[in-house]
Amino acid sequence: MKRLVDIAHAKSGDKGDSVNIGLIARDRSDYVLLEREVTAERVARHFAGICLGEVRRYELPKLGALNFVLTSALGGGGTTSLRVDAQGKAMGEALLLMEIDD
Amino acid sequence: MRTVRIANGQGFWGDSLAAPGAQVRGGDIDYLTLDYLAEITMSVLRKQQERDPDAGYATDFIVMMSEILQECMDKDIKVVANAGGINPLGCGQALLDLAAEIGVTGLRVGIVTGDDVMGDLDRLRGEGVELTNLDTGESFETIADRLASANAYIGAEPIARALAEGANVVITGRCTDPALVLGPLMYEMGWAWDDWDRLAAGTIAGHVIECGAQATGGSFQGAWQDVPDLAHVGYPIVEVGDDGTFVVTKHPGTGGLVTSATVSEQLLYELGDPTTYLSPDVTADFTGVELRQVGDDRVEVSGARGRPPTDSLKVSMAYPDGFRASALITYAWPDAVKKAKAADGILRTRLEELDLDFRDIHTALVGYDSVHGTLTPAAQPSEVVLRVSVLADEKHVVRRFAKEIAPLVMGPPGCTGLLASGRGQPSQVMAYWPTLIPKTAVDPQVVVKENK
Questions:
Q1: What is the ipTM of this complex?
Q2: Reduced to 3 states, what is the DSSP secondary structure of residue A28?
Q3: Fewer CB in 10 Å around end: N or C, chain A?
Q4: What is this structure's pTM?
């Protein structure tokens, strides 16, 4: 078992009530592992109770990266969300807490 | 090969006041682009214009230009900024007034208007455009009677047109962020408006620098500890070649870092489906993009692909949507978390007994689990800030909430008093409503005003 934080970095940002998380392999050779282990279903389970919508995954193998879009994930989003992280800036870090098989 | 050097000196309103000057003075650039408008910025500007009809644009832009305008004119650096907000003509006039005041001559300000579609909505609805919320699917009827602003994201063409008409400074209202870069490229390179791969390359170049220092090591999640001298972080520059391939870099001697990792984070920032990045100019595909480190703080970006844009324009609308407030109280060791939770329980009991109509009440324990929620690794902090936030349609409801905060000092012990601005004063919420309209509904205009 290893944590994603050991092999990847991440960047998140908002669009309305959706958040996207770019997950980037630190070493290009680990991209295959990310692609195999970090499925949309796993990410949805990881963010259960936080992401109330769906999770879509997109692959960018040339960048060694995956992009996840999580809908209904920011407590309303924009100016109406009362959350501390209303724009999901730290959701990337939250994804890096996930443990995967290596 | 011909190369155009385009710099970003501002990634959002409130960004570094020093960055634009550093971009002008730190080395050769052809263009300085300044991005002031986040999604919610338009609603802030709308509030300001309600108080003062001459306001409604990024006033910081005028202050900043007072320091660099003469130098930009001397070095023939053209400035492209979406600082116009909801009042680009007012912003342009303020810049001309400034030039007259500080003795800058020969300034030609290109002002792009036409993004404000507030006056066109009744006609569009009559033609069957529904203005449904793009994110939620809600009907426009729910906000029709309280709409405060409606602005279309316009593309690069009017910016290129303003430059062709000799503007040294181009001021726009709402346009896409990448258009600030694509507009100059279209003008300089003379690319065809159906050369989809080059349009995509220019759009991606704009996306890479639109958030300022986020491309050069600012807010870099990958290895923030290793980014040198963030105090003097260099803002990004793209050197774009005629084939659309570009190099991301920054001025020598500045802080920060340009690596494949920093550029990757910015490429993925606020990205949806990477095969379908929508803009009025082109639909760009990021999946063929490759990065190559070609020198210290130099990353080459190639492989952008594009296809024709859709027939729609995105419109961002703002409307007043109730009031909100937050209260902050600090609790100290021992049992800081338990005390904060007990205080929250007391507050919620009292609020419930007042029978007020809140749309949402949210409690966060800052310093404990306010950011990562249930994913937070277990740890007991020695102190914690209780933050309770409310949202309600009526202002008096939020005011009444605020009255319940001070009495909490007689709740659990270890409360150090209220943090600054933590008394829960109500502020009006301006909410955001994204929608689509037909592209044919908008006809961007360019006026060039000269200061002789």
A1: 0.96
A2: helix
A3: N
A4: 0.95
